[in-house]
Amino acid sequence: MEFTCCTLWIWGLLCFLVILLVPLALMLVPAILTYITPDGRRKRRLINQIPGPTCLPVIGHILGALMSRQRLLEYRRENCIKYYPIYKIWFLHQPLVNIVGPEYVEAILRSSKHIDKGWVYRYFKPWLGEGLLTSGGEKWFSHRKMLTPTFHFKILEEFIPMFAENSSALADRLSVEALTGKPFDIVPIISQCTLNIICESAMGIKLDREDEEQRKYIAAIHEYGIVLYNRIVKPWYSVDLLFNISSLARKQSETLKILHGFTEKVIKDKKMEYIKNKSEGSDEPVEKRRRRKVKAFLELLIELSMEENLLTDQEIREEVNTFMF
């Protein structure tokens, strides 16, 4: 009996150590390799030429993950001021370079050479796929060239009445809150306004909080934001093996089902609407049909897909989701 109890105790201890050490190894080994391998040492040497707060060996600034959101925001603001116009921090083996100075931002955004996205962007791909924000290489160039006309000033000007309507509603909502004389959180109010605008301009739908599907979609956007925040800020979630067995992965899966399902339904409905309108006005020139009404971004993508066969349904979804984000 004593032998059995002792054996069980040892096995329990071993299992505990495995559960503890395997995640640590998955996080720390890549960081240690950056001190050992030639590529890793070169990476550290180059990145460390950029100023930044003092970090601990191997783990870098991982302790920042223990900060509250409020403290983390203050910490980043302090670094922006202290190390302006650029600074870096290390999350284990991953550097995060924060660009503050506008001249630095301009130099990067104007470049058409260095367009491959950093490690953070992979967390966006389950939702956004290979849209403009996350793609690189030839796909980025071709889609950027294809989509640029949809953001012509004349097209954007057509949305001004919609912008004004939503802005007026926002001002009314803020006025009501302000009249109470009590402090209030403006973030959800502003977020709702911007979401209304982007839904109407990107997908051509007006959000109705009484609609169950739309309410779930709005909630799913916020939920996915929480997933993104945790994957970026908490390094243990950067290890796919650890993330995939976490409750956060289940939340992501449930959220993506809602996000993709909603967008796919809208795309399907808009495609059917496009086919119907085209058949009813088949003798009408394409240019005249385009001027007939203000078109949402999604409708313009569908037109590109149906008329010129340039985009698949998945690519349409990716680009729409990118602008929803």
Written account of the structure:
This is Cytochrome P450. The protein is mainly alpha-helical. 66% of the residues lie in helices and 4% in strands. A two-stranded antiparallel sheet has the order 1-2. Helix 1 packs across helix 2 and helix 12 packs across helix 15. 19% of the residues are buried. About 2% of the residues have low confidence.
Characteristic terms for this protein:
325 residues, mainly alpha, two-stranded antiparallel sheet, 2 strands, 66% helix, Cytochrome_P450_Monoox, transmembrane, oxidoreductase, metal-binding, microsome
* Separation of the first and last Cα atoms: 60 Å
Spans of 5+ residues with little confidence (pLDDT < 50)?
288-292
Shape: globular
Helical content band? 55-70%
Task: Provide mean pLDDT, rounded.
Answer: 82
Number of strands: 2
Largest sheet: 2 strands, antiparallel
Helix/strand/pairing category: mainly alpha
- Give the helices and strands as they follow along the chain: HHHEEHHHHHHHHHHHH
The order of strands across the largest sheet is: 1-2
Offer a concise description of the structure:
Its main location: endoplasmic reticulum. The chain is mostly helical.
